[in-house]
Amino acid sequence: MEERKFYSEAFKKAVIQEVLTGRLSKEQAKFKYNIAGNSAILNWIRKFDPSKSDQMKKTNSPKIEDFNQQELEAENKRLRAELDYERLRTLSLNVMIDIAEEQFKIPIRKKSGAKQLKK
Fold first, then answer.
1. Quick count: other Cβ atoms within 10 Å of Cβ 32?
2. CB-count exposure of residue 15 (10 Å: 0-12, 13-18, 19+)
3. pTM for the full predicted model
4. CB crowding 90-114: b at 16 or more within 10 Å, else e
5. Quick one: DSSP state of residue 18?
6. Is the confidence at residue 77, as pLDDT, over 60?
7. Residue 4: what are its φ and ψ, rounded to 5°?
8. What is the pLDDT of residue 52?
9. What are the domain boundaries of the chain?
10. How many CB atoms are located within 10 Å of the residue 55 CB?
11. In whole angstroms, how large is the CA radius of gyration of the chain?
12. Own/partner pairs for 19-25, CB < 8 Å, 24+ apart?
């Protein structure tokens, strides 16, 4: 059985301060300080600052307003380039499979509805 850890009030308050100010997420704080339990930090927030626990539920992920327009456009451009690359990659792989099937006269692609072997 795993040994239960006990944390001082000062430590708990320091951790929730970092979480509430946005320097760390609850998950990041859990891993950074090796805190056991999935809801320990949330329980500490409820204990030491109940008014903030409701606020934490609403602000877990960054909002679009937190990013400026240039960052969004740059991210969009990067993602479009990645998508174009993956489309070309998929097309080239399909062409290679077609050529291999034609030259070696063997079916490479799985037939739809084919039954899998039972172990």
1. 11
2. buried
3. 0.41
4. eeeeeeeeeeeeeeeeeeeeeeeee
5. H
6. yes
7. -80, 135
8. 58
9. 9-58, 65-104
10. 11
11. 26
12. 19/45, 19/56, 20/45, 20/49, 20/52, 20/55, 20/56, 22/59, 25/60
Closest to 30 measured CA to CA, from 49, 12, 54, 51: 12
Neighbours of 29 (CB within 10 A): 19
Nearest-angstrom CA–CA distance, 105 and 34: 57
Give the pLDDT confidence of 17-66 residue by residue, as tens digits: 888 888 888 888 888 888 888 788 888 888 887 675 555 555 554 555 55
How many CB atoms lie under 10 A from the CB of residue 67? 13
Average pLDDT over residues 78-101: 95
- Taking CA atoms, 81 is separated from 10, 18, 50, 91, 110, in Å, by 48, 36, 45, 15, 30
Which DSSP string corresponds to 35-95?
A: --SSSHHHHHHHHH-HHHHHHHHH-SS--GGGS-HHHHHHHHHHHHHHHHHHHHHHHHHHH
